[in-house]
Every structure is written in structure tokens, then in C-alpha cells.
Design goal:
globular, eleven-stranded mixed sheet, 18 strands, five-stranded mixed sheet, alpha+beta, 286 residues, 6 helices
Amino acid sequence: MELNGKLVRYLDNNVEFIGVLKDSDTMVMPLDISNNMNEFIVNYDRFKKLLSVNNPHIPLEDVRLLSPIKTPLQDIICLGINYMEHAEESMRFKKEVFDGKREEAVYFSKRVNECMPPNSTFYISNITNQLDYEVELVVIIGRDCKNVSIDNAKDYIFGYTIGNDISARDLQKKHNQWYIGKSLEGAFPMGPCIVMRDDLSIENLYIKSYVNGELRQNSNTSKMIFNVDYVIAELSSYFTLKAGSIISMGTPSGVGMGFIPPKFLKSGDEVICEIEGIGSIVTNIR
């Protein structure tokens, strides 16, 4: 089954819609469905015919893009230190010795009550002094899967988007694990769209982030230690990955904690996360 198109969730005259991008991504065509992207994903076989309906097109500049998925069905599954150079900078920040090996994937979960829009504001609170950014490729599962092989893993993917895994490094250290430091309210901007599976080959895409125009992260998805197919196969060997599940594939080097001295985010900063073939998202820190 082919999955093609770029899906968005957007606000038009204060009403939320789901649509598909048209005309070189300059127009959006609303779909005759509710604004719940999870419902569309889980029931794709029933709703896919809506993609071929010829509804009126609306200029993209006339609407406000929202996160493609508003409320994840479950906690987001994240990969830690899935790029070797990020593993090195992470160990250096923690003053730990790195042996240069990454034999097993590191998984953790991130509580996200609501994904933030692709152009949004994150408000720093007084509970962290070490706020950091992480550009990540995000994978969305399209069908329930259990015990799938690496060779068949792609058949269960719905599409891809961009996430900024905003992290509080001091809280990660304080609690000796990552859940709290990764789960601050509003700490997962996502978007700008979901590129459906067969419209994008993800094996060799540039992945970048900028802070106030300065290029901070500059890598390629080919440098992932554990690729998407491997991760889906491994996770599904332990438990069922449900349709609508979100997997965030880890970040490359160049995060704030990796600099000497560290360059943590402060009020007034602008973070841009960008992945080739998907687009970019902007987060303003206040």
C-alpha cells in the first residue's frame, strides 16, 4: 500500500482542520474529516480516499500551522545517544569516560501532554538553568506491529516529521534518569507536516539546528547508530507498537551541553530545527 502526501493540521478562522499540502507546498487542501490526526492514522484504510477528493485549495500563508499530532496516544518513545559524536559530547559533559562503543540502543520515554506547533514559544521556568535543544527525526507508526523483521519494518511506518526534544540537563542529572528532564510542559515542538512514508527516503538526509542564526547541529541521518528499521524491529520484539505511536530517533552532536563552556538556552533565543525533505520548525524561548 502506497502512502504519499504531506499532511498538516492547521487553524483557519479559529477552526482546526487536517489537510494535505498541494502545489509545491504553497497551498493546503482541507480533508473532510475531524481535526484528530490520530484518528486519521489509526483508520487510514477507511479515510485514505479523502486524499484524492478535489476540495478547494487555501494558500498556506493564510492559515496557521499546528503540530501534526496534538496529543500523542502514549508517551513518546525516544532514543538516547543514537549518534556517536553526540554520545561523546554527552559523556564529556557528565565527566564520564566513553569507550567509543554503543552496542545496544538506549530507549526512554517522554511525557508530552500536547505537542507544540512548528512556530511556537517555550517559556523557561525557574526549575531549570540548563535548558537545551535537540533536533530529531520523528517516526510515526501506521499499523499495530509485533515481532516484525527489519526487512518488513517499513511496512508499518505511516510517516515522518521533525521534533525538538527540549531537555533540562540539570533535571536529568538531579533525578539520575531522563524522564523528568525531558518532560517539561511544552517541551516537544513538532512539525511542520507529516511526510507520508513513500514520499521520503530517510537514510541520507541532512539534519540541522540553529540558535539565533548560528549553526549548532549539522549532521546526516546516515550517521544514526541504530536506524529506523532496526529500532522498530527491536521495540516490536518486546511489545506491540500501536498505530499512532511516536518514535523520536535521537539527536546529533552540537547540543548546548556539548560546548565548552556549555551554551544553554536563555530567554530571547530562537531555535530552528531542520531536516531535509520535511522542512523546519522554530521555537522562541521566553
